[in-house]
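Memo to structure team: turn this sequence into structure tokens by end of day. - J.P.
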Amino acid sequence: MKNTLSRFGKFLSGMVMPNIGAFIAWGLITALFIEKGWFPNAQLASIQPYMLSYLLPVLIAAQGGKMVGGDRGRVMGAIAVMGCIAGVGGVDGQPMLMGAMVMGPLAGWFIKKLDEALDGRMPVGFEMLINNFSIGIFGMLLAIFGYYAIGPVMSGILAILSAGVDFLIAHSLLPLVSVFLEPAKVLFLNNAINHGVFTPIGAEQVQMLGKSIMYMLETNPGPGLGVLLAYWFFSKDVTTRQSAPGAVVIHLFGGIHEIYFPYILMNPAVILAPIVGNAAAILFFSIMGAGLNGPAAPGSIIAFMMMTPRDSMITSLLGIIIAAGVSFLIASPIVKMSGAKNLDEATSQMQSMKAEAKGMAVSGAAPAVSGAAVKKVVFSCDAGMGSSAMGATKFRNRIKAARPDLTVTNSSVDNIPADADVVVCQRVLAERARTCAPQVTLVTIDNFLADPNLDHLYESLANGNSSAAAPAAATASAKPAASAMNGVLLREGIQTGLKSVSKEEAIRAAGALLAKLGYVGADYADAMVERENLTTTYMGMGVAIPHGTSQKKETVKKSGVVMLQYPDGVDFGEEKAYLVFGIAGVGDEHLELLGNICNMLEDEEALEKMKTSSDIDFLMSQLS
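Reply from structure team:
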């Protein structure tokens, strides 16, 4: 049950978080220019209803569609949610944020299934026509479905929730919301609840009253602040105590509530502190008739106070202090009396919970996956055409017998597919991968061909064998047609018996040969050296595959591969490369050759012969 809720919460948050900037813009316009705002301006205030009714739902639905169905899903989601918006009356109806969270993923799933059904069945030359018309036609149908079904249903659900909130407020029971809200934060449901439920209800209250207490329920930084202060003063673990001040700053001023989750996980009983602290603050806000003009996103004291009406600044500040004080008083004795885990263990536990939200678990130094929930593994490097392609091919060949249902592919680290479950990349690229795909489980490695973390990943995936899956799924994104070999590797692109040089000279020689054969521009070699400086392209077993950075892809004229043989080796750090493959890729034409290189690595006898042989026919036969 916990894992199901975590997966659900992370998925909903994944639709909201990339669009927080739009929520902030809408909130600022609301707080500044409505009648009871800081600088009342009826003309500028007229912007905010359109942002709430149109901009935010479309952004959320587009993101949800992209998470499920990629770029085509993004367009489908945006089209489909317009039906929901129109179905409830546009700016005169209830905001369709919840409707967007339904229609976006639904549209993405639909177009993904349609694309799978059409794969390989479209007549040559009609691909663009079919792709564009399929989105247009089925997007229209989903918009109609949203108009008559999803929009009215979501409007009804929101009306029921609004009535429930009114009942809680009228009977002074609103503080009880914290009993569910604070644990929901640890399950990653807070953003979905805040922006999917509280924000639409709050928007209606702002239109009637000029402010809403709903914006204060989840965003108050006080409850978490009290927990962190308790660990700062009373934790028995020195490392934990020393880490708490920094966490206080990040939480209070940065609004990153997630920073205090590990401190609760160290002692689950501490969850009582933010529950009671937030309940006390909500009670105070209710008595004082407090509220915010717009959503405080992220939940920092800065955003919280910026959204506070001019005449309620002291009230909002006192509410934060009350929440922090009560939370601190309850958490302090629990922290003092209990033998807590250290912070590293608790952080690992939180990472495990994040991973479990996608059906995964963390094991040892590398995330490992459990069960058959993982359907897509993506190997990523800077450009997405060299080391990641080889790594994906080798891992695909290794895992396909145990997991025929698994898709293993590769991409640039800046263009990771939205439907990826696990991403494998080199450590130096980890932050870029997290930025591009925060929803995935990340496996960091040092070597794409042989790394202990790849072994852990294999074992975890293999243990989750799905025998019911169709074997064809394993190669859904594998090799292109055999004709793709034509022109990718030429006899003139193989040089043997070269004298040893420096790594940079070998890379530039490969770049020069690629340029000579018309694959790339003259400056591509500079990009190859730049890529090598970022992280090594040495793959292991005496093979290196230097290639350019993603920023220099425009200098590639067509896909091509060259091979330079150095019988005495070229130093690539602490290793020697005897075969240096220079790579330039436009599309996927070079991937088959990389797959052949991977297969070649499995035959050690042939590989050793390739390092010294001058027989071009033999070398071509091994690579084709």
